[in-house]
Amino acid sequence: MTFARLRSDRGSTLPLYIWLTGILLFVALAFFAFAQAASARNGAQSAADAAALAAAQEARDELVKGLGVAIQEDDGAAWLDWLDGGVELPDGAAQGAAEALAAQNDAELSGFAPDEVNGYPGYWAKVTTNYAVGDSIIPGTESKRAKAEAVAVIKPRCDLAESADPEKAVEFVCDGAEEPIEMDPDDFEPGDLPDAADLFAVHLAE
Q1: What is the pLDDT of residues 112-164, one digit of tens each?
Q2: How far is the C-alpha of 202 from the C-alpha of 187, rounded, in Å?
Q3: What domain range is 180 assigned to?
Q4: Distance between CA atoms of 102 and 126, rounded to whole angstroms?
Q5: Is 155 helix (H, G, I), strand (E, B) or coil?
Q6: Burial letters 121-142, b for 16+ CB under 10 A, else e
Q7: Fewest C-beta in 10 Å: which of 58, 96, 141, 155?
Q8: Which parts of 74-199 fold into alpha helices (H)?
Q9: How many C-alpha atoms does 64 have within 13 Å on its Cβ side?
Q10: How many domains does the chain have?
């Protein structure tokens, strides 16, 4: 009698074990699917950040080249405007730089445009990963690619006196510089320019 009852109890708990095992397996697969999606999103965001930063860094280099030309031309143009961000970003290879960095991060540039944040110029970049999220219990993920976007801005690092005269020697202080920088349009060579990173900071917009 007791043995028969024990066999009956075991038989009734077997479906419960199977049901619980199925639930646990489903939960584990669901977590795996979300982890796959999160990994793809993180990869896309890294690619977007890199693309936007690359564009801004390329434009920063173009700004410094433009600054050198403005000083050399000495035609009365206010070359100081180039130092305080008072000029439009020059047309250059910014988009090409963004495309290259997106590709290095296994993504493609799917959107790009000049932008401005808090008065600072920069670039907006949107990317789409070349890889899909992958097979999971969520339908459609096997072909769904992750997307992300980012904005990087160029911020002047130098403080200029309001009375500074572009036709005379100008001394100014830049963040991180050990000593003031001086530029004299009457005694200037392109090699006199500091590194672009000393004049402008590039960072992602918050």
Answers
A1: 999 999 888 999 999 998 887 654 445 555 557 789 999 999 998 888 777 77
A2: 29
A3: 2-204
A4: 9
A5: strand
A6: bbbbbbbbbeeebeebeeeebe
A7: 96
A8: 80-83, 94-104, 196-199
A9: 21
A10: 1
- Say how far apart CA 85 and CA 79 lie, in whole Å: 11
The tally of CA atoms less than 13 A away on the side-chain side of residue 41 is 7
Query: pTM of the prediction?
Result: 0.74
Please compute the mean of the pLDDT values over residues 75-96 and round it to a whole number: 75
User: Which residue type is seen at 29?
Assistant: L
Q: Give the pair of three-digit tokens for residue 107.
A: 């993504």
Closest C-alpha among 200, 197, 112 to residue 151:
112
CA atoms within 13 Å, Cβ hemisphere of 45: 7
Give pairs for 9-15: CB < 8 Å, separation 24+: none
DSSP state of 194: P
Tell me the residue length of the chain.
206
Contacts of 60 (CB under 8 A, 6+ apart): 154, 196, 197, 200, 202
Tokens of 123: 């670039």
CA dist 163 and 95 (Å) reads 36
- Cα radius of gyration rounded to whole Å, the chain: 29
Is 128 in contact with 107 (CB distance < 8 Å)? yes
**Tokens 């950040």 belong to which residue?**
49
